[in-house]
Every structure is written in C-alpha cells, then in structure tokens.
Amino acid sequence: MSYAKAILEELIDVCKGVRYVTLLLENCRLINVFTGEIYEASIGVYKDRIAYIAEGSVEGFKALERIDLKNKFYLSPGFIDSHVHIESSMVTPRRFAETVLIHGTTCVAADPHEIANVLGVRGVEVMAELSRNLPLKIYLWIPTCIPSVPGIETAGAELYSGDIASMLREDYAIGLGEVMDYLGLLKLDRRILDIVKVGRAYGKVIDGHAPLLSGRLLDGYISAGIDADHEVFSFEEALEKARRGLYVKIRRYLLESSGFIDKVKRIPDKSRLLLATDDTPPDILEYEGHMDSLLRRAVELGLDPIDAIQAATIRPAIHLRLNDIGAIAPGRIADMVILEDLKDFRVKRVYVDGKLIVDDRKLTVHTESKPLPSDVLNTVKIDRLSSSDLRVKAPITDGYVEARILRVKGLETEIFVDRLRVEQGIVDPGRYAYIAVIERHGRHGGLTVGFIDGVGLKEGAIASTVAHDSHNIVVVGRDPDDMISAIEELRKIQGGYIAVRRGEILAVVKLPIAGLMSDEPISHVASELRRFREVESMLGVVDPYPIPMISLLALPVIPHARMTDKGIYDVDKGILLSVIVGCES
C-alpha cells in the first residue's frame, strides 16, 4: 500500500503552524515507551509521520481531521514481532496481515525458512513478493540453515553463503535468520561460518537459536556476532543470555513457565527482553490473537503493562535497527494503536503510516490476491508406496531384535531401546505406533520407518507435510493401510494435515502452497485445523501444544532425538542411528 510520505521541510512547517496536520488525535492517554510514563497528550500526524506531541491545549492547531479520544483511550506504538514464521500461520502473507493488524501488530520480522526448506531461494523470493504492498510492514530474515542440520535430513534445497549474500542485498532483508546450526558454528564448519561472516560483512542483525547452550560455548556462539535468541526454556537460561547482551525473545511457552514473570520482575533493567510469537498456528491467531495475546498474558501473570508494551514496541525496534518505528515521537512513522485498556489490550483502532487501517476490529482496506506459480503449488513429489513399505524389516526371519523407540515427553523426544518380536522378517510394533518420515521434494526418495511411544494414538493414522524444518511427510499410525491412505491424500491435495481411520478421511487441512499455506481466509483454515485437533483427540492423540505435535517429530534442532528421512537422529550426540540396534551402516 502506497501512502503519501512526509518530507523534512513539510514536517518543520507543520510544527511551526504553517501547514495543517493531516490527523490530530486529541486528548489521548499517551504511552511513552522512552520514559515509561502515561500522560494526557494530543498527537499531530502529517502524512505518514508523527509531527508533534502537544501536552497542553491544541486550540489553534490546524488539522484536516480531528479525533477527540476524550482521555478514555490509550495510544501505543504499533506492536512489532521480531521473530515469526508466517508459514506457521498456514496462510499467505496477505491473510496473515489481515489477521494480525486487527490485533495491533503493524510490523513483523519474518523468517521464511519454512518455505526456503521446500523451494530454496525461490521460496524466499515468493514470500517477499507476496509480502509487498500490504498495510502490514513485513521484513524478512534471510534463512541461514537450509537444511537445519546438513547431512541429517533431506530438504528441498541447500543455501550457501553466495545465496545468502544475494538475498541480503534486497530491500526486504532485515538480517540473518536464526542460526540453528550452533554446533556446526562452534565446530567451525565452513558452510555456516561463511554464512555468518557474510551477515557480519553486510553489517546485518543476526538472529540466534541455541537451546540450552551455556558457559563458554554460549560465549563462543555470541562472539560470532549473534544478536538474539528465542529458543530459551527457563528463566536461568534467559538471564544468562541477557547478561551477555543477547536480546531474549520470550515466547508463550517461556512466558507461562512456572515463576518466570515473578523472577523477571526482579531484573533491574529489562531492556534485553522482548516478546515474540515465533510459530503461531491459525486457530490461535483467530481465537486468541497475536502480540496482543502475549501482552494480555504477560500482564495477567504480573508484568507491569508498560514493561510489556516496551517489550513489544521500542525494544524490538532497537534490536531490528528500525529507528523510524517503535515509539510515538516526532519524526517517527505514525504506526499507532488505540487501546481500550491495558489489561485485555482490546484494540479500538490501528493506524499504519498515518492511515486508519483497523476501526472497531474491522479492516478498512482490502488486500489483493496474487497469482501463484505452478512450482509453488506442486511440491509433494513422492513415489507411490504400499503398506509393506511402512513395516520395519528385521535382519532375521523370526525371533527378537533390539529396537530404538522414540518417546514423546512434552516438547522433548528421547530414545529408548525395547525388545520386539520378529515374524517372517517383519518387526511387530507391539504396543507402539508406527512413525514414518518420507522425503517429499522429489530428490532422493528417503524413507525411515520406526516406532514411537507417548503419542497416545489408539487407532488410525495422522500425517502432515508441515514437518519442521525440511517439511517432509511425517505419518504416525497404528495401521499401515491407514498410513498409506493418509499419504495418498496428501499427494492429492498437495499438502496439509490428514487424519484417517479405517480408510476414511476424518479431517483434512488443505495447504497447497508449498505444502505449508493456504490463501483462504484464516477463519477457514482455523476451522479446518480445529477439526483436525478434535479428530486427533478422538483417535487418542495427546497434543496440547500450539503447533500440532506431528509437525515437530522430525525437527533435528530441539532436544533430544528426532526422526528424519535418513534415520533416527540423536540431537545431543549429533549422530544418526538405525531403528534396529546393530544395523548401522
């Protein structure tokens, strides 16, 4: 969306009273994120910029439009999300923008590493194009770890320092996306080292991802130029990282952890603490909100509202080096949110670049759909499989083998070994469910089949093409025939989530764009995902997390073990293992 832009001479003339302001918001309760104060003020806006802040009478000020807020409403800078994956909303950038603007978010720094894992540089270019000319400001982190751990999984592409350098030159590039291969960086692996050096050479912000890293190894990681980290699991970890100068991005999981806010309140200077959403699925966005929901929850847990707002405005702006936004001050871009209160953070109006975009929780603008090329819509490229392909083969005809089993424990997954029966060369899963990861990018046809515990599945199968980070097909099932039905349906619809029982499709979330997103309204996709969650529960799956559990079972950068298309991966040791003990190649 193109708005008129103020120039220096005009702004000065406005402040001298020579020109009219285009908008005067009278008698608001201004939230000053610099001083932490709230006081009565009137804000003069000229075109896309804040011109002046009047703390007294505004009689005689010239304005084309005057709105008297009668000291009933708070005026906040627009909310900024410094770490988000738009693909996790399962909708395109325009549908994402339509949703988060209503909740007061006016700027995001989005890491498109999900679509980059499917389509490489092409995927980033598509996201950049789909993000242009929207009322939401969308900057892109340039993905650094495609795939997240080289040699451990098969992504749809690999990105190297030359690819990164070319994208960093684009106007949409805010910096280097989360450096997940922290072990590779500490080992001085040439690929990730060269990528980080490119980011430093361009003087860009470098986002981090180093769960549980501590002490001298953490210091080594930060020394590479890392600016922030969102992958933090405890207050102690957050404090250690903040003390070393990292911006710590607090996600809902950490925010709600036991005693976290009480401990945060004891930190004298909280300027390194930010709020960020990371991965937020469509049903959470639709029914709970975006940055406003984090603010609401933080205050409910005891954080001072001003601290919370600073963590969603000025601090992320400083971190991202976006000096024109993040505060309501002369010369800054007029991205503003009118709030009814500082408890529920109910949004009354949203202004972007000085223009009214949201009024009473309704958009005042229309976003245009853009045509999608065929290569973005045909990304599920797999050979046909049979149910026999989804059984675990044994090195013996009959007897017993020692098998490695994945066990899901909350957000973590571990490996343990159990003795399973073999009949006619096939391992009987016993009480365990099957899990399979299938390479879906048409590259090598990798396939791993194993066993999983702790999922709760009693019957049927669930499957998804959303499987962080390489986004291969992951399917969990009790019946290989149901697993095949799920896989074939994913091929047919070119991506999404599926739940099957006795051959019947019980729930489907259609995500045909790179197998990750839809251009349907978020309300439609949220409804489909809600149905999938209901069916999951009916089938016995225990899945209380925002991101469907099945989407995390192949993610090789979170503790402690995962399954990829190349085998079982011990995250802590950094090694691939076979399902059958003793069958390592």
Could you describe the 3D structure shown?
- The longest helix is centred in the C-terminal third of the chain and has 17 residues.
- This protein folds into two domains: 215 residues, TIM Barrel (Alpha-Beta Barrel); 202 residues, no CATH class.
- The chain is α/β, with parallel strands linked by helices and 585 residues long.
- Helix 3 crosses helix 4.
- 55% of the residues are buried.
- It is 26% helix and 27% strand.
- The strands form four sheets. Strands 1, 2, 3, 4, 5, 14, 15, 16 and 17 form a nine-stranded mixed sheet that branches. A nine-stranded mixed sheet has the order 20-19-18-22-21-24-23-25-26.
- It contains 18 helices and 29 strands.
CATH superfamily of the largest domain: Metal-dependent hydrolases
Q: State the CATH class of the largest domain.
A: Alpha Beta
Q: What is the CATH third-level topology name of the largest domain?
A: TIM Barrel
Helicity range: 25-40%
CATH architecture of the largest domain: Alpha-Beta Barrel
Question: What separation lies between the terminal Cα atoms?
Answer: 56 Å
Q: What is the tally of beta strands?
A: 29
Described by strand count, sense and barrel closure, the largest sheet is: 9 strands, mixed
Number of helices: 18
Structural class: alpha/beta
Low-confidence stretches: none
Average pLDDT rating: 95
Number of domains: 2
Rg is: 25 Å
Shape: elongated
Share in β-strands: 25-35%
